[in-house]
Amino acid sequence: MEYEAVIGLEVHVQLDTNSKMFTRVGTGFGQPPNSLTDPVVLGLPGALPVMNEEAIEKSIKVGLLLDCKIAEVCKWDRKNYFYPDMPKNYQISQYDQPICEGGQVEIEMPGENPSKMGPHRMVELTRIHLEEDVGKLTHYEQDSLVDYNRAGCPLLEIVSEPDMHSPDEVFAYLTSLRNSLVAAGISACDMEKGQLRCDANISVRPRGETKLGTKVELKNLNTISGVRNGVEYEIRRQIRAIEEGTPIIQETRRWNPDQKYTTPMRTKEMAHDYRYFPDPDLMPVKIDQTWIDRVRTGLPEKPFDKQRRYQKDMNLPYSITSALCGDHLLCAYFEEASEMAKSAGKVANWVVNDLLRELSQANKVDEFAEEETEKITPQSCAVSPQMLAELVNLIEDGKLTNNVAKELFPEMFATGKSATELAKEKGLDQQSDDSEIEGICKEAIANDPDAAEKFRGGKEGAINALKGAVMKATRGQANPKVVDDILRRLLS
Questions:
Q1: Domain spanning 434-491: CATH 1.10.10.410
Q2: What is the pTM of this model?
Q3: Do 468 and 421 meet the contact criterion of CB atoms below 8 Å apart?
C-alpha cells in the first residue's frame, strides 16, 4: 500500500525590536543570564503589561508580506500552564482573534534540471498570531537552570495548513519563509540563537484517503536541515507502525539530531487544557486601514519576485539568481554595483563566485577562538560595490584580462585597494600597444610554424596555440582581442 504524509508547521519567529512585548526592558542575545528582566517579565505582584507598538506594526508587515487578512480588531488571551519557563504561570498570546488570518507562502520545489527553476506553488497558512516568548531551560544531570532573558520577547507564530506532503516541501517552505522575513527586516531568523523555531505536525494516511491520520507533533528541530531530517524519519516511523499494526498515539515527540530518531515527550495538550481566557490587563487592538496602508508602503520586493525580475530584465541565468536572491544583503550589493558597471551579468558572476568565496573563507568559524567575531557582510567587506564595478569595467574596456582580475580580487578583498592600484603596483596593466604585441606575435609564429601552417590550411583551432604563446610571453597582460586580430592579420 502507498502512503501519503500530511505536514503542517508552526514557525515561531522572534521579532527584531528594541524592547520586549509588554515592557520597556531591552532584548538581546548572549547577555548574562537573567539580566534582561524586570517586574513584568518576572510576573511580580502589581506589575502591569504595556503593549509594544513596534511589534504590532511588524506583525502587520508580515501579514501583508504573506497575503494575510489583517484583523480589524485583535485581542490578548492568557494561555495558562505551570512550568518554570514562565514565572507568572501563563503566557500572553492570541487565541480566537489573531492579528492575521489566512495567507500563503510561495515555495519552489526541486526541478529535474538543477540549472532551471523548479515548479512553484503556494502553501496555505491558517493564521499568524503575536505572543510573548518564554524563558530558556537548560537541563543538567542533577539540576535545571532557567534564563528569563528571552522571556517576554515579541514572538510571532506562523501556522500553516496541513498543506505539505514531503520533507523537501518542508525545507522549501522554511527556506522561502526565512528569506522573506529576513529581507523585510522582521527578524534575523538565526535558529542557533532561538530567533526562529519550528514545530512540525505530521500524520500519515493511505494515498487517496481524505481523512487525516493521527497527528504527532515534533519538537527540538534546531536547523532547517534538521526539520527536514526529523520529518523524514517520523514519516518512516509512522508508516512502519501502521504496517506492523501498532497504534499511533497523538503525542509530542523529541527529535534527536545526533542519533537521528524521535522519542516520546508527552501526550499532546488540547486547547482546553490551557484554559484560555481574555487577558483582563490588556485592551484589544484596533487596526484601521490607514495604519495598514502606511505599513504597506514599506514592504520590500519578495525574493521570488526579485528573482523573476533578474531573469527577465537582466537576462541572468537561474543558477546565478538562485544564489543571489536567497540573501537580501547580497542583492543590495549586486544592484548597487550593477548600476555603475557596463555589464550586470558580469557583476552577478563576480558576486556569486568570487565575492561569496572570499566571504565564506573570511567568516570561517575558528573553534579555538575565545570570542565570537562579527561576520563580514557584503556591505562591510573591503571590496565596495564601486570597486567591483570598476574591476568589471576595466575588463570590459580591455585594460585587464579576466585572468589578471581573478588574481587581483583576493588581494582587493584583503587590502581594500582598487584593481587599478594593484595592477599598477604589480605591473599587470594590460598591454594594448599594437606595435609591441605585433613583435611578440611574429616571434610566436616563427617559433611554431606547424601551428601557423595548420591555421592557414583551415584548422581554426590551431590559432589557440599561438595565442597561448603570446599571452605567456606577456604574462597574461596582452589584450586577447588585440592578439587575435594581429595574429589573423599576420597569418593571412
A1: yes
A2: 0.86
A3: no
